[in-house]
């Protein structure tokens, strides 16, 4: 039976968005064997970035943490577009979060916690993963945060 993850999303008051269209020549997600790899997901909402700039300058760490949650939700939409059903997720294996950072900002792990916490809230133990949180000079469209995910699926 499918729909367990969808029910959990609804219970949390979350709606899975449409897959964010690619900004260049790539796919939002691809499957290889039992793994789905997402492209870097920006915190797009209705086709737009709600906030732009560097974390620690124009964007606060708390704003960026919320944006990382949005990135994670967009990543789940990309995974579902390939897997067909989020109930097929065996586990989130790896998350990589990129934070466009002001030169003196060192709170990247706290920002990327927004994505990690969303995966745990939605998927429970299956959402617990290995992770990297990386500070970078700039991201596409001047986005403050970008998140990519590797997910293992249960065989169909």
Please provide a brief summary of the model.
The chain has 156 residues and is an alpha+beta fold. It has helices spanning 4-11, 61-83, 108-123; strands spanning 29-32, 35-38, 89-100, 130-136, 145-153.
Mean pLDDT equals 96
Shape: globular
Strand content: 15-25%
User: Helicity level, as a percent range?
Assistant: 25-40%
Please trace the helix and strand order, writing H or E for each element: HEEHEHEE
Count of individual helical segments: 3
* Beta-strand segment tally: 5
How would you characterize the overall build of this protein?
- With 156 residues, the chain is α+β, with helices and mostly antiparallel strands.
- The chain contains three helices and five strands, in the order αββαβαββ.
- Strands 1-2-5-3-4 form a five-stranded mixed sheet, with helices on one face.
- Strand 3 (89-100), helix 3 (108-123) and strand 4 (130-136) form a beta-alpha-beta unit.
- The radius of gyration is 15 Å and the shape is globular.
- The chain starts with a helix and ends with a strand.
């Amino acid at each position: 039976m499918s729909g367990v993850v969808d029910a959990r999303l609804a219970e949390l008051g979350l709606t899975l968005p449409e897959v964010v269209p690619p900004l260049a020549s790539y796919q939002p997600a691809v499957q290889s064997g039992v793994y789905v790899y997402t492209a870097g997901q920006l915190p797009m909402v209705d086709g737009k970035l709600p906030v732009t700039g560097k974390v620690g300058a124009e964007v606060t760490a708390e704003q960026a943490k919320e944006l990382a949650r949005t990135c994670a939700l967009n990543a789940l939409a990309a995974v579902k577009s390939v897997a067909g059903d989020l109930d097929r997720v065996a586990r989130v294996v790896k998350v990589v979060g990129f934070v466009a950072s002001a030169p003196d900002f060192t709170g990247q792990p706290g920002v990327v916690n927004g994505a990690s916490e969303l995966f745990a809230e939605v998927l429970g133990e299956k959402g617990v993963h290995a992770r990297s949180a990386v500070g970078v000079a700039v991201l596409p469209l001047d986005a403050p945060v970008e998140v990519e995910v590797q997910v293992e699926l249960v065989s169909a």
